[in-house]
Amino acid sequence: MKDAILTFLFIVISLAFAAIFEIPLVIGFAVALILVISLVLRKGFTTKDVALASLDGIKRIKPVLYILALITLLIPAWIMSGTVPTMIFYIVNWIEPTWILLFAFMIAALTSFVLGTAIGTLGSLGIIIIGVAITVQVPIALVAGALVSGAFVGDRSSPLSSAFHLAANSVEVDPKSLFKKMIPTTLLMLSFSTIFYFIIGFFIEPQGVVENVEVTSLLNEFFQISFISLLPIVVLFGSILLKIRTIYSLGLGVLTGVVLAIFFQKLPGVDILENLAFGYHHSNEGLEAILRGGGIITMWQLFIFITLASMMNGILDKTQLFKVFMKKMFEKAFSLTNYTAKTVVIGIIFAIVGCNQAFPVMLTGRSLKDTWVDAGFTKEDLGRVVCDSALVTSGLVPWNMVAILSAAAIGVSTLDYALFAAFLWVGPVMTILVSYFYKPKQQIELQQKIAT
């Protein structure tokens, strides 16, 4: 129990200290990692154990590093190809600032449900919608929150989502039965988020960057605005729908964008390489405010951060520091509501310390499966709670890999969008409410037994 609390405090305090004193978070996390390693060594593990666990963690996140690298290339590639400028050109002609939050949430939710991936959705739509937000003079943190919320609808609920299948596998239930069990919270979370963005939209006060007419005219002047420029979107979406791996789909999206930049937008090769390496920049001030981001070299801190996070993940997985903590959590729990609330807390803690989305989902599901069954509750209910807590709240933790990738895809930091990512933080609340009002036969029998 003590080890779990210390680990949690090491991570939170180190990162809070870094944030308060404006030190790069990667340094704060490095300090936390050193403290956790010291704790593990004092418990009797050897330096070899720590090294092997760290190496194992790094091996597991190679695909994440590849995806991050491709996203940093995709953004400038799609701007140079005219893909992003063309989408902005057409969308700003009919979108009203009042509706952009609701539009961002719904288009991202629909896309992510079809594609089954939050990162694929944000990688393809994120920079486009953020560019539209800047053009129509809406605070980008609000729109980023709506986009991330929508993207996680598919990550949590889509039959094509690897995260959803991981949750079903961790509690050993059929994905179809888990999907049905999640319907009440899915509808509640979607309804709340829709109302949230609908209401917030009426309070938006445009802050003014450049007038829409001026922007469309600038886009026309500096880019070939054509439906041909949308080819990279078709290639990326088509690849994902054909179930080609996300890494290869993103790679095809980048390649298509670069080909169009060379042969359709007629950009010099030197400019293309510079933008891919250091991020897209434009000589025109108006366009510079709208079209920006990416660049593989500019993201070096994120690559180091992910490497350190994977080491932490490997060490926690090897040492099982939270085993006693989980056992004690359920000593005085009896009702479904108690079990749900305690599981939510555990899932969120694991999302904070685990550093990736898979770790809290797997550890919460696998560790508590027998505990829930022994108490007379279904594994489907546990799966619902895991999806509504550990899975979605990972996107709110700045050092969690899924949050890092989301922030990189839209060019907005996790801390900036977290408050407005309603779908992510309302999940734990809704799943507790559903458990409170849902009275399964097993719970009624248990309460009667306790009463007698």
Distinctive features:
about 450 residues, mainly alpha, about 75% helix, globular, 24 helices, transport
Count the DSSP helices: 24
Oligomer: single chain
| Secondary structure: helix percent | over 70%
Strand content: under 5%
Let me know the number of strands. Answer: 0
Helical/strand content category: mainly alpha
Low-confidence runs? none
State mean pLDDT (0 to 100 scale): 85
Radius of gyration: 23 Å
Plain-language structure description:
There is one protein chain. The longest helix has 27 residues, at 175-201. The protein has a domain at 63-298. The chain starts with a helix and ends with a helix. It has helices spanning 2-20, 25-42, 47-60, 62-80, 83-91, 100-115, 118-135, 140-157, 162-170, 175-201, 212-222, 231-241, 246-263, 269-278, 285-290, 300-319, 323-329, 336-354, 358-374, 379-393, 401-410, 414-417, 422-437, 441-451. It has 452 residues and is mainly alpha-helical. The chain is 76% helix and 0% strand. The protein has 24 helices and no strands. α4 (62-80) packs parallel to α13 (246-263) and α10 (175-201) crosses α23 (422-437). It is a multi-pass membrane protein. Keywords: Antiport, Cell membrane, Membrane, Transmembrane, Transmembrane helix, Transport.
Compose a concise summary of this entry.
The protein is an all-alpha fold and about 450 residues long. The protein contains 24 helices and no strands. GO terms for molecular function: antiporter activity.
